[in-house]
Amino acid sequence: MTESADRRDTSTPIAMDMDRFRSMLFDSVGVGLAVVDPDRFRVLMHNAQFRDWCPGLAGDAHAAVYDLLGGFDPEAARQALDGGVSYRFEVQVKPKRRPITLACELTPAMGDDHDALLLQCQNISKIKELEYMIESYSKLIERQNRDLKKEKERVERILLNIMPESVYAEWKEFGVTVPQRFDEASVLMLDFVGFTDMTVSREPTKLISELNDIFTGFDRIVEQFGCERLKTMGDAYVAVSGMPETNPDHARNIAEVALRMVRFLKRRNRTSEEQWQCRIGINSGPVIGSIVGVQKYVYDIFGPGMNLAARMEPLCGPMEIVLCEDMHRLIENEFRFSDLGEHAIQGFGRKRIYRLEGTDDIANDFPGLP
Questions:
Q1: H-only helix segments in the chain
Q2: How confident is the model over 204-255, as pLDDT tens digits?
Q3: Cα–Cα 20 to 30 A to 292, which of 60, 225, 272, 335?
Q4: How many Å from the N-terminal Cα to the C-terminal Cα in the chain?
């Protein structure tokens, strides 16, 4: 090829087939296009993409749009067009093996021919898949958040069973708790008479069920008087008052709790096959409260107030409440007592002890029960 032959002659006009050029543009836009008759919504002409998405055109080149696209509503389309707005709809078609979603818009055609409508269809399957994935992930995250919240609440309930709420709040915020000394607090220690023999002679499931039922009743009594169940150890039940929140009525409250625990058991024994009897030692004095343990947390108390309450409990007879002279001085004008004389208390020397008999209120509220 010569240099002169390769050079383009720009002086000669290019001869173009404009109909073919328009047809190529019509087919290359990447969306489905169709010109539609506004009276009967029949397809007048269409591009290749529209034909690929509407296989129904193969048998009828001028089929109605509503026969080709199931989501097309002729009445709704006419109302929208009469109102001067486009008619939009989505439809799912299955031109091949996989269904696809089309977003369609029917508008008046531009140009001189105002009696035609232009139908544009765009494949939004990937957008729909993305929306579905986002929605699925959102639901998954919501479900995981709900499960996490439930688990968190379950853990909190467990922790609140082994430590007071204010101690838990401190531990939750700082990760540790500072041991606290409470000079004015009262402690209750309850033990059941003959429980060791019961564990041997009774059916275990029934025995534990009864114990749970009784401890649940005790918990309600403790809560009623603003006290705190500290822990249970087998059949032993320990409650405190005046800690971790101080309370000037700590001695009276723990005495009220002790009386109502005994009354609860007496009432329960009237209808229960098992006869439960308890011994309760109560005492007022200084204690130290703290969480102990690293792997397994336990909130516990230490000190003379706790030790003396523990010394009182063995001095009780069945269904009795015993306290020593120090606590007696705090509440001697509010309850009835029996003087049990002086006893040698291990670690505390000789002390006068008393049996808590009750109050007029309890006798009046529940006639027939001492």
A1: 3-6, 18-28, 48-53, 65-68, 74-82, 125-162, 165-174, 195-201, 204-224, 250-271, 304-312, 325-331, 360-365
A2: 888 888 889 999 999 999 999 999 888 887 788 999 999 888 899 999 999 9
A3: 225
A4: 128
| 65 φ, ψ (degrees, to nearest 5) | -60, -40
Q: For residue 15, how many C-alpha atoms fall within 13 Å in the half-sphere facing its CB?
A: 0
φ, ψ of residue 243 in degrees (nearest 5) = -155, 150
DSSP code at position 115: T
Beta strand 100-108 with 87-93 is antiparallel
Residue 247 structure tokens: 């309370």
Instruction: Give Cβ neighbours of residue 324 (< 8 Å, ≥ 6 apart).
Output: 283, 308, 312, 345, 348, 351, 352, 353, 354
| Among the listed residues 97, 98, 87, 96, the one whose alpha carbon sits nearest the alpha carbon of residue 65 | 87
Question: In this structure, what token pair is assigned to residue 191?
Answer: 């033990």
> For 124-139, b where at least 16 C-beta lie within 10 A, e where not — what string?
beeeeeeeeeeeeeee
Return the residue matching tokens 């439960």: 276
Are 104 and 119 in contact by the 8 Å Cβ rule? The answer is yes
Dist. CA 368–CA 370, nearest whole Å:
6
Percent helix, strand, coil in the chain (nearest 5)? 45, 30, 30
Q: Classify strands 236-241 and 228-233 as parallel, antiparallel or unpaired.
A: antiparallel
pLDDT, one tens digit per residue, over 57-82 is: 887 778 899 999 988 999 999 999 98
| Cα–Cα distance measured from residue 70 to residue 54, given in angstroms and rounded to the nearest whole number | 11
Instruction: Dig out the tokens for 346 from the structure.
Output: 């291990």
Tokens of 171: 């531990």
